[in-house]
Each structure stands twice: as structure tokens, then as C-alpha cells.
Amino acid sequence: MTDSFIRDLGEGLIIRRSTAEDAQALAEFNVQIHSEDAWDARGLKDWTLDLINGEAPTFNEDDFLIVEDTRTGAIVSSSCLISQTWSYEGVPFKVGRPELCGTKKEFRQRGLIRAQMEILHQWSFARGELAQAITGIPFYYRQFGYEMALNLHGGRSGFKTHVPKLADGEEEPYTFREATSTDIPFLIATYNRGCQRSMISAVWNKHLWVYELTGKRPYNINRREFFIIEDQSNSPIGFIGIPTLRWRDNSVLTVYELASGYAWSSVTPSVARFLWAHGETQAEEQGYPQERFGFMLGKAHPAYDVITSCLPCRHPVYAFYMRVPDLLAFLHEITPVLEARLTDSSFDYYTGEVRLGFYRNGIKLAFKNGHLNTIEKIDADALDDITANFPALSFLQLLFGYRGMDELEHAFVDCFARNEESKHLLNTLFPKKHSDVWPIS
Ligand SMILES: CC(C)(COP(=O)(O)OP(=O)(O)OC[C@H]1O[C@@H](n2cnc3c(N)ncnc32)[C@H](O)[C@@H]1OP(=O)(O)O)[C@@H](O)C(=O)NCCC(=O)NCCS
Questions:
Q1: Of 169, 190, 273, 321, which residue has the fewest beta carbons closer than 10 angstroms?
Q2: Is 109 in the pocket of ligand 1 (CB under 6 A)?
Q3: 172 in a structural domain
């Protein structure tokens, strides 16, 4: 047995950690399982190699799980955990992101991913991660304790005819240049400013920015090329991020932020023109004729509002799967946010209990003069006088601001608050708020 061995699954299959020697075989495996065309394949290969080469700031070479058929030495199933920090309205919390889950066709439906999820959850717990987040196929991850509870994807796009035109004789008011490492303080400050629009966001520190700008392989499926937007005096006023791998016929940007003091309405038309021009070059390189340009900036973004008629096509919003294995610990962590939400609300200086019921058990939050003094479990035999009942994992939708109480009551007949006052209190503590998270990959 090697150090990487974790578990014997019988019939010649073992689960083990990855090592640097797995790099090429794992890249081929991920390409075979997850790619749809040659460019996808390139992107997945680069991503896998980037992760397993141990240079990503939050990923080590042994952070993949591999199910190996010891009779042939082949990889038959795999997954990994990408650790990161997110922010809950300013309070950082650690998150584990299971990714690249896949099993060879002939080995599916035998519990190989289920067994790996158990191990990834143990790793995540040991790393002090209070939540796990997955971008995954519909329904599947619910089986492992996840609820779809946070916006993911979504955007707007238009065709060539929608690219805003300069007036006759008008000069392009803003220019674009590739970002370099010296731009990192500006990128961090401007990105952090944008995070104020999002209740939940990922924390992009200096190491992550350096890696994004200089560390990733060119066509890593999760790599973006960053461009600094400059005004006519060559001062940086914002930035955009464009995936190096084209989204087929759609030239998209997936990050766009402006520094304080600049108007979305005056900069965004220049951004659209640059995006189209850049897309022409990428299209030639990657062999997909450019049909559209897209602002894939999530469910909502200021850019959508200022050039709405230039972006007539809407792309649907999906959802992150979220798992919070220890709700007590999570609520402890976000106590400053909960107290701040009460301040200056109708429940300022609130004294009383909020009793969250989950049918089999519950959680009591005891407030005194607006301070959250106690957070404790309610056992099955003490589920009386409940403030609101939540079936299954529906409370996570409220916790992450994804749905408000009215929407939950509408969607789940067994979700209900005791009375209108209780509902107002819950909507104050856990308001519905916008989030679009750009996760660490
Ligand atoms: C989805 C996928 C990873 C599942 O792998 P697997 O090894 O068959 O998964 P498991 O057997 O561990 O699945 C656990 C449970 O889910 C069930 N299941 C398997 N595939 C499922 C699916 N697509 N949808 C719903 N349930 C599924 C299994 O039957 C099993 O049920 P049980 O525990 O009640 O017996 C695999 O089908 C795959 O590689 N698909 C292509 C790549 C992909 O889509 N990956 C996910 C990217 S997010």
C-alpha cells in the first residue's frame, strides 16, 4: 500500500489520493468524461494539469481523488476539492468546492462518486470549511446534502447589429490593454468594490490574482484574460475578464467592474465594441465564426441596465449547490452580520428567541437587546413554539439570500412562519439579496 491509499472498494477497485505521476492519465480521463469538442478538451486538459501541478494557490497535487482499477491500473472515477474563501456580507468563511466529478460509463451507478463525496466532505471539514459549493448537473448533488441556493451563470447577449456604434467622427473614449501583475492592487480594489453588489462573493487575494494573470496554462477552461480599461489620460478606470477559450460562437466577458467615479453608461458601449473586436481575433484562432457577443455577468449587473437594447438575448440563471453541514457553526460565524441587520431595522434592540424548525430538530437563536447571545440546537422533543418551519434543506435558500420567506412559503406548503411578525423578523435577519459569485477554480 502506498501513502496515497485511502479505501478498498472491493472487486479490485481502490480509492487513493492523486500524485504528480497521475497528471497525464488524469488529464486524459477528464477530457474523455467531460469534454464536448476539441477546444473543450484542450481547456479541460490545461485545467487538470494546472491543478495537479500543485502551483494553484489553494490546490495541492494530491487534492484529487482517484478510483483506480488495480487490475489494469486505469483511472475509472475521479473528483477533487478546490478550497477557497468566500464572504458572507463581509464576513469571510471557508468553502470547499468539489469539482471534476466523473466516472467511466461502465463503472457508473455503483456508488463510486458517493464514496468520494464522503471523503471530500471529510477533507473539507478537516480544513475548517463551513460550506461546500458545487456547480453541477441538475438534481444529482442533492443526494449528498446539497440545496440549490445561490445564483450561478446567467447573462445577456446580442448580435453584430447590436454592437453600439460610435457617432461619425467620434473617437473611442476608452481604451483597453492587457493587465499585468503591477495592476493587481487596482484589480483587487476594483473587484472588492464590485463585491458590494453581491451578498456572497469569493475572496480574490493577491496570490489568486497573480496565479490568474501569470500562472494558468493558456487555455485552462477557467482562465480569463484581463484587460484594464483606461480613459484618455491613460488612467485605469475599470477592468474586464474574457475567457481565453471562446464560448463557441459567442464572444463573452465574465467579469466587468468599474472604479469609483465612472459611469457604467458611458464606459459600457466601448466595452461592447472592444469585446466584438477581440472576439474576431479569437474566432479566427479557434475556428468558430463570431455570431454574438455576451455579457455573462450573472443574474443582474449594472451593464445590463445601461445597454439593455444592445443585449436582447437572455441566458438562463442556474444555481450553485450549497451544503452547510454544521448550521450552528455557520450561524456563529455570521453573527456580526445578523446583529447588523437588526440594527436600525424595525427589530433594533430585539430581545427574544428565533426558533428555526427543521421538523426533526431545530435551532434556537436567543437575542438580548439586539445581541445574539446563544445559538443552540433544539431536539426533536422540544420543537414547540417554532418561529418558522423549513422542510428538508429549504432554510439554506433563506440563509444565502436566494429566496425570501414569501417565496419559500409559496414553493413549499410545509414551510411557514408562525405569524406575520415572525415573517418580518426572519426577512430582517435573512433578507433576500442579490449574489453572483465568481468562484476560485
Ligand atoms: C454523474 C456521474 C458523475 C455519476 O457517477 P457514478 O459513479 O455513477 O455515481 P454514484 O453511483 O456514486 O451515484 C450516487 C447515486 O446517484 C445515482 N446516480 C448516478 N448517476 C445519476 C444521475 N445522473 N442523476 C441522478 N442520480 C444518479 C446512483 O444510482 C447512486 O444512487 P444510490 O446511491 O441511491 O445507489 C457520472 O454519471 C458521470 O461521470 N457523468 C458524466 C460526467 C458528469 O456529468 N459529471 C458531473 C459533472 S457536475
A1: 169
A2: yes
A3: yes
